[in-house]
């Protein structure tokens, strides 16, 4: 009996297609009608056009196979003069040149307002009217019944564009994620209607910009009406919400009422708050039960307010704010400024729920760091940088008291810690190190590291001093209880002195270790010039060779 060809199995073809280039699949499509039928759907699964129009005819011919489109949408809009239909399209990313603007992200929830302009005399490239391109785009959406993820930039101040976009959203019953940018003023009632049309979405990402406050009676009435509409709107299914606006009036009319309609919200990215009264409105909303399932919070970058709103917001995001509130489990802070008041708010209100704290740009003083590790018992993941320790950065009168406090976060599994505590001290053998304030601090720090028996991943960048040695002044011997450690990253500018003895010790004590990164750059820490001191390359090579001979499966990365 003749057996079926192996490629007759669609699962096998799909798996094979993952390893083929577009050229490979195109060549296979030319070998036979059977192979054409097999690989054309995969060849046209994802299309990224950008500024090249050469694929447009093929897209039209094989549109029924397309599931993902990534496109500078003016190209598709200009070419879509005839009817298009994408019955299987699931994800589309339209970044149109029609508004002359692009949107970008620099981190979790951080908004990049530096746009690139590609218009000439008010018209986008190709001389096509911007509103006409936007209109073709929103009409095109109506040919995508299975669309789940949509990224789009529109000028919703055009009434025709808005009406057809609203109708398209109502027809997209499978839509789960909407990422929308509006670069001009938008009637707030239009924003409310768009939000309402996306009530089944699980992820919403909105960015609005334009002039500052309303300029007249008409705009004031629009905001008042939008606020009323928001208050009577039914609850949304959204679980992840990202908000960015340059308009103070939208905070009270749209942002705060929106949060009251998100009972299932789990993750919130909030851009800079501009109106002082918004802080009190948010506090009142959270205390009255808004977003009870909120567990992940990404506050925005440095704010424009005189008083930092973060301590107030953190104080009303704990499990004690309501019967059904779960409390924050993760905070990701991208601001370069984090005040001691925020650390106190964390330890006072979030100690019973907070498990992850990540700092992106902030370099904190030792006192703030000490407050976190001694006040957050459930902490499992921490990313932080500590400033250089000196009489200028530390209250000497409190130093001994801080160093007597035990860490309570003994369940830490991931620790990414950058430190400037040893700044300017080239070696642990010198008198400048033995008599220094940083040594007293490191003695305390490593006594606490030694207790982290559940630690699995540890990046520690504190150069130039090599603290992971067995000789006097080193701390490696204290760390024998880190049996769960799998990944170790050490700073790229460390003056390495580790050799065969250290390798033998690591092989014997860190039995779970799988990865050693000796050029770790996960934490940007500026170290003063250490050109006068060279790492012991022979000792380091011996360390690697010895450890590899004892534990062949360990992976090494080095500078």
TrEMBL record:
Gene3D superfamilies xrefs: Ribonuclease Inhibitor (3.80.10.10)
Annotated InterPro entries: LRR_dom_sf (IPR032675)
Highest rank taxon of the organism: Eukaryota
SUPFAM superfamilies, per database record: RNI-like
Protein name: Uncharacterized protein
Organism of provenance: Linnemannia exigua
Taxonomic placement: Eukaryota, Fungi, Fungi incertae sedis, Mucoromycota, Mortierellomycotina
């Amino acid at each position: 009996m003749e057996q079926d060809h192996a490629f007759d199995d669609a699962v096998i073809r799909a798996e094979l297609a993952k390893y083929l280039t577009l050229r490979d699949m195109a060549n296979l499509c030319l070998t036979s009608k059977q192979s054409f039928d097999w690989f054309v759907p995969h060849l046209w699964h994802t299309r990224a056009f950008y500024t090249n129009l050469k694929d447009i005819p093929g897209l039209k011919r094989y549109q029924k196979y397309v599931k993902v489109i990534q496109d500078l949408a003016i190209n598709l809009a200009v070419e879509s003069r005839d009817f298009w239909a994408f019955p299987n399209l699931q994800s589309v990313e339209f970044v149109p040149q029609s508004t002359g603007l692009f949107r970008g992200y620099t981190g979790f929830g951080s908004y990049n307002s530096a746009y690139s302009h590609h218009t000439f005399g008010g018209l986008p490239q190709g001389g096509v009217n911007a509103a006409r391109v936007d209109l073709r785009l929103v009409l095109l959406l109506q040919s995508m019944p299975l669309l789940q993820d949509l990224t789009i930039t529109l000028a919703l101040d055009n009434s025709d564009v808005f009406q057809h976009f609203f109708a398209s959203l109502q027809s997209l019953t499978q839509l789960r994620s909407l990422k929308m940018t509006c670069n001009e003023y938008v009637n707030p009632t239009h924003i409310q209607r768009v939000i309402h049309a996306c009530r089944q979405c699980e992820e919403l990402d909105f960015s609005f910009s334009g002039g500052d406050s309303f300029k007249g009676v008409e705009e004031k009435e629009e905001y008042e009406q939008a606020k009323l509409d928001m208050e009577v709107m039914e609850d949304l299914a959204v679980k992840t919400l990202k908000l960015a606006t340059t308009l103070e009036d939208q905070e009270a009319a749209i942002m705060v009422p929106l949060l009251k309609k998100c009972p299932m919200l789990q993750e919130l990215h909030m851009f800079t708050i501009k109106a002082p009264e918004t802080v009190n409105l948010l506090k009142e909303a959270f205390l009255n039960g808004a977003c009870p399932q909120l567990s992940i919070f990404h506050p925005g970058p440095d704010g424009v307010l005189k008083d930092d709103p973060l301590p107030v917001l953190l104080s009303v995001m704990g499990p004690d704010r309501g019967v059904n509130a779960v409390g924050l489990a993760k905070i990701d802070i991208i601001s370069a400024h984090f005040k001691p008041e925020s650390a106190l708010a964390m330890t006072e209100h979030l100690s019973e729920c907070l498990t992850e704290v990540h700092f992106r740009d902030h370099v904190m003083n030792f006192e703030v760091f000490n407050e976190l590790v001694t006040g957050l018992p459930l902490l499992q993941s921490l990313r932080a940088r500590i400033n250089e320790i000196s009489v200028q950065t530390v209250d000497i009168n409190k130093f001994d008291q801080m160093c007597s406090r035990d860490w309570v976060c003994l369940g830490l599994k991931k620790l990414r810690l950058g430190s400037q505590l040893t700044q300017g001290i080239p070696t642990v053998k010198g008198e400048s190190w033995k008599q220094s304030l940083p040594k007293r601090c490191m003695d305390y720090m490593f006594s606490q590291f030694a207790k982290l028996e559940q630690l699995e991943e540890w990046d520690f960048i504190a150069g130039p001093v090599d603290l992971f040695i067995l000789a006097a002044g080193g701390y490696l011997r204290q760390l024998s209880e880190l049996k769960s450690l799998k990944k170790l990253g050490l700073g790229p500018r460390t003056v390495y002195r580790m050799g065969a003895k250290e390798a033998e010790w690591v092989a014997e004590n860190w039995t779970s270790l799988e990865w050693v990164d000796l050029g770790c750059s996960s934490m940007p820490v500026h170290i003063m010039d250490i050109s006068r001191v060279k790492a012991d390359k022979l000792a380091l090579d011996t360390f690697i060779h010895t450890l590899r001979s004892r534990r062949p499966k360990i992976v090494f990365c080095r500078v």
